[in-house]
Amino acid sequence: MLRISCFLCVALLGLSFTANATTTSLIEQLTRLSEQFSTALIYDNALLEGLEVEPVQATSVQSTLNKWLTPHQLSWQKTAAGIVIFKTITPVISISKTNNTSLLEEVTVTEQLPTSSNGDAYNSNYQQAVNYAQQVKSDYAGESEVALGAMLTQLPAENLAEALQAVPGLSITRDRGEALNINAMGLGAEYQLTLFNGHRLANTENVRNSNQYGQQHRFDIFSAGLFSNIAVYKTSNSSLPSGAVGATVNLLSDDPLAYQDNNLQVMLTGAALEGERNFQPSFGLTANAKSADGDLGVIFKMNYENRLQRQFQFESWHWGENNGAPKPYQWPDINENTLVPTDGLALTIENEDRTRATYYGDLSWQATERLKINSLWFRSDTDFSFDEHRISINPQSQSAQAHINTENNSLNQFMFNAVNAKTSREESNLYYANQTIQVDANWQPSVHLPLTLSPFYSSSKANSKTKEPITRVHVATSPMQADVALQNTSVDNFNFTGNLGLVSSYSHISQMSKRTINVLNEIQEWGIDSHFSAENSWGLQALDIGFLHSTQSYHYARKDISLSPSALEQLPNLDGRWLEPIANQFSAGFMNAEVQPWLIPKSDLLQLYDIDLPFAEMSESDRLNSYKVSFASKEGYISSQWQFEQVTLSTGLRYSNTLSETQGSQLTKTGGGAYQ
User: Fold this and answer.
1) What is the pLDDT of residue 636?
2) pTM of structure
3) CA–CA separation, 373 vs 4, rounded Å?
4) So what's the pLDDT on residue 154?
5) 3-class DSSP state for residue 130?
6) Nearest CA-CA partner of 376 in 467, 271, 301, 323
7) Residues in CB range of 60: below 8 A, 6 or more apart
């Protein structure tokens, strides 16, 4: 704990000062600066003792501190208690107050959002983290939010998306109960841009649903404690890559040299579904170390998690006005503006087994006083196994009668005489991987020149694929009656007159298919950033200039194969070898009546009946569903910050020159009305 021997806060305004000597004591000049601007300056007296600076005509606290402190390898940080001055190479300052308040640990930030996080910063006190995040936000000229330290590490969050709920203005979307994507500025996840230390991050796709959203990022690949500093920009920033209609989320890595002590933290937890004995482990490890001379530091983090989830749901996918529905779904003798279902009504049980492992390593080397080199490696591997059971009704109007809810002007009760229904099973094994490597350096060419050059290289690769093909089997029910009754948020009835626990209640296999999807997204970026600290009579404080070269490639490949109608007709008759009871009965709070049990297709039908569905060369349909997109861009920017008394002005300009190429197949009309 450092002893604070100088704490000044003097309410004298408009006081200017000069000195006749060429240089004078830094401590004396700081005392006068504190009096002039009524600002508390906090420092260790032994740290500044004997240092001298040239007197200046102070126009602002920030510019004057930069002028005096930079040549002496010193930095400053604004906090709620005042401005803290500390040695640049050891940015963590501990401040103890006589009233026994909580320990205050500071992050190095100079009038802008954080560029790298401090390993010891605000990890132990949630309120301190919130207070500092608010301070950073108020100092930034633009609309932004910051989450750091305990705001991310001390919440009961299963992944990073859930932790980001602490950031004002962000909302999340969930997939089977777990947070998946973030939304901001009133826009969906596909309109947000995710960066890693200011560089584009490759995205993984939701291949199970065949979604193709481009830059929509799956935050479930990150464990909640992986990052301790995140900045969200809601307005444009010329120093960051473009591409976000909504917000730009910048994930910031830790600085290994910012940790004061070597640490090792191991965490082991377990969970189980209610009423079951399946043990689901979670293991986390965080370690950091620094050499004896403080020039070499390393951080390593890893997290392993296994989770089983079960979800019960009622689905009525699409509704629309009766006159706008497809003709088979238009109901006779019903008003045209009545809302009717235009797709299936279904009860679904989803069983998910998820295994996620993330690894993160960061090595930092202070080669000289003016040269620092950083290298970072991140990898995430996630496996999803799905086993989904569904009993569904196709609500075509020819086989049913309906009752209209006059309050909502929509159908809410159906009586199907010869129901068009099926029991189905979908199985899949999906794999998501993301690997990112970054190398950068910070070089100050001269100790007398306040210029920093930062060359960088970033390579990010994401692969989303079906590890095992998505297999779907549908079995049609025999003719029978079915009743469905709906309320606003619940289901009163979903029953069939036949006994769905008997094989005789089902007629034939209506579909057997497989699908494979492979999505590869790669991004490579290199360039250089430069930062120049300035002070002149015009109020210029900082000038940033940079160049970026970026190449991106996105490859989406899909293959489908299924048994033809004639092949389905030749299958043996249904018997006990085809169907089996569901392992878990349907039980959900939104069901107001007991759900009758039903049979589902067995998981090994293709092997049981030696049904071979090999994936051959890509078909015409496969080619229509597959494509490649590549981008190559050159970007340059210039931004500046100006200080005029109590007014801060930020200006910037970004130039981007992008070439894109798309490769794919399309239907082409030829003579005679045929397509090829």
Assistant:
1) 95
2) 0.74
3) 32
4) 61
5) helix
6) 301
7) 37, 541, 643, 645
